[in-house]
């Protein structure tokens, strides 16, 4: 089946630093990738939709200048959390749309802890 | 806008019981319906995907059904085991759109 990877799987950083998370579709081309966030004991919430070669579409309440998304190729999207703060600590999961069946495949997630 | 709810929020059963988890959605134009398992502190494990024109999927002791007209999906777990303890999430998408997740059902299977 289609595989989506995320790197890193876990990151701990100091407040004020920037962190980049990569999402890759390994065996299919993904014209659209989605970024979700999951706070402790909550479900996943969509942050933004990323289309290859165009600007990302952000959900209401998500700061586009803080969460920079780049979808430069059909197999790679990146999420950069700029000037991270402790309240940004969360589990970030991407999904990629494509492959057979026209569905979405989820990455394993990245756990971000900001000290 | 699609909204997904799940009942019950938590469930505790003795080992060996058959159980049903419920998922409801508001938009019958749902395209794919997927059930996931999530262990504490871990990512998502896809259990069953019901695609577009399908109504049911089975994998081992798991069976998921989808009724678009009533806005419901159920996940049936047969002969539950302690290893089944986890949070179960259902999620649905409309064609080309993101998945919308339910809040999850936290399952505990007691030995």
Provide structural commentary:
The complex is a heterodimer of chains A (115) and B (111). Chain A is mostly beta strands. Helices cover 0% and strands 56% of the residues of chain A. Chain A has no helices and eleven strands. Chain A has strands at 4-7, 10-13, 19-25, 30-38, 45-51, 57-58, 67-73, 76-81, 90-98, 103-106, 110-114. In chain A, the strands form two sheets. In chain A, strands 2, 4, 5, 6, 9, 10 and 11 form a seven-stranded mixed beta sheet that branches. Chain A is globular and about 40 Å long. The relative contact order of chain A is 0.34. Chain B has 111 residues and is mainly β. Helix content of chain B is 0%, strand content 59%. Chain B has strands at residues 4-7, 10-14, 19-25, 30-38, 44-50, 56-59, 62-67, 72-77, 86-94, 99-101, 105-110. In chain B, strands 2, 4, 5, 9, 10 and 11 form a six-stranded mixed beta sheet that branches. The radius of gyration of chain B is 13 Å and the shape is globular. The chains are: A mainly beta (115), B mainly beta (111). The interface between A and B is medium-sized, with 22 and 21 residues.
Tally of DSSP helical segments of chain A: 0
Give the total of beta strands of chain B: 11
Q: SSE order of chain A in H/E notation? A: EEEEEEEEEEE
β-strand number of chain A:
11
Structural class of chain B: mainly beta
pLDDT average of chain B, as an integer?
94
**End-to-end span of chain A in angstroms?**
37 Å
Tell me the helix content of chain B.
under 10%
Report the portion of residues of chain B in β strands.
Answer: over 45%
Large-scale geometry of chain B:
globular
Low confidence ranges of chain B: none
From the alpha carbons, calculate the radius of gyration of chain A and give it in angstroms.
Answer: 13 Å
* Main sheet characteristics of chain A: 7 strands, mixed
Overall mean pLDDT of chain A: 92
Helix content of chain A: under 10%
